[in-house]
Amino acid sequence: MARIHDSAGRDRRPGRLPPRIATVLRPELDSLAEDIMSEIRRTIPEYGEPPDSGARLELRASVEQTLRTFVDQISGSDESRDRRDQLCRALGRSEAYRGRSLDALQAAYRTGVQVAWRRVAEVGRRHGLSSTVMSQLADALFAYIDELASLSVEGFEEARSRTDDERAELQRRLLWMLVERPRPSRAALERAADAAGWSLPAEVTPVALPPRARCVRAALGDDVLADLGGAEPHLVLPGPLDADRRAVLLAALPERRAATGLTVPPGEAADSLRWARRTLALVDTGIVEDAGLTAAEDHLLELWLLADGALLDQVARRRLAVLARMGATQRLRLTETLGAWLETQGNAVETAKRLQVHPQTVRYRLRQITEAFGEQLTDPESRFALEAVLRAGRLRERSPSLR
After folding, report:
1. How far apart are CA 380 and CA 107, in angstroms?
2. How far apart are CA 265 and CA 209, in angstroms?
3. Any long-range contacts for 84-87 (C-beta under 8 Å, 24+ apart)?
4. Are 246 and 289 in contact (CB under 8 A)?
5. pTM score above 0.70
6. Which of 84, 161, 247, 372 is 20 to 30 Å apart from 146, CA to CA?
């Protein structure tokens, strides 16, 4: 059952619709949302932005939710109404934060209800709904859109009453919740994002910046959360780092140096930022090549192998103990040979090619290795541990500070 707010803020209810209307409308919602978004993009320039822009994503989430809530209310359920109210108010706040009037949003509402009514009329004819029911449905739909617009006006006025400093503080608080421990609940993040006028996306991508990094904040866009003044400056981008977002990010970083974390759900942003910071540290030590904008996703193995240096030392000490009794030259040769042999899955010829020595030399060394390591070379778990330790050791050799 649809509701609208009168000027006193009370609810008025249009006539009750047959619950079966919800059954015939629900299968239409996904395609209807797509049709509405297509028409809005075509007719309203303010929403003709890239698909992953904050405004577009926010509007799409609101369209999908308001359609679901309308059908839910026809079926007699109000469970999704609070979420719809949050999203509609957030749309109004976003327009205020972007320095725009409500003209574009109101035009989007008008466009949405026109597309929705055409679909509803088509469904009504297809299912043989009576003229009385269609009239009630029209009243409910147009009353519902008035309610949505009213909620957005509330959000718009609320945002205009806040100072820029208040908004910045709310966004700093939201960013802190995203990247610090303990992990917040989705509901807590939604409340903080709603208050800050930030549409909480399904995924985020944290970015670690070097200390005292120069960053053109205005070039990042309003939908990017940023802490540029701390000892470990960082950003949180909504959605994945696609080509458009990457170009914007590089334009905002004159020194063109940063590390991006993995694209994850908002509740996992703290882990992703930690990986991004660790990637940046590996770039600083020379273990990972500086790609300008270095992606942690491209170096997951290095991050894993070097996650705990002290623990790695302990594993290496135990797994490679038999080499400690050898001279430095022999130990180096056998270590290189063992690593290459494990990586080539026990192929002596391929090992020789990798080391650029004669196969007979490799076979001689392998006899020494077999004598030293014994059953470790036939046990799958031991072989895995040996290969991991040797790979990590080679990575550490790239940086004197980690040896």
Report:
1. 65
2. 21
3. 84/148, 85/151, 86/190, 86/194, 87/58, 87/61, 87/62, 87/199
4. no
5. no
6. 161
Distance CA 336, CA 355 (A): 8
> Long-range contacts: 304-310, Cβ < 8 Å, 24+?
305/388, 305/391, 305/392, 305/395, 306/282, 306/392, 306/395, 306/396, 306/402, 307/278, 309/396, 309/402
Q: How many CA atoms lie within 13 A of 378 on its CB side?
A: 5
Residues of the chain short of pLDDT 70, as ranges, are 1-15, 49-55, 163-164, 399-403
Tokens 């930022």 sit on residue? 273
Distance from CA of residue 56 to its chain's centroid? 16
SS3 state at 345: coil
Residue of 11, 95, 15 lying closest to 58 (CA atoms): 95
For the chain, domains (ranges, CATH) are: 4-161 (1.10.490), 203-305 (no CATH), 310-402 (1.10.10.2840)
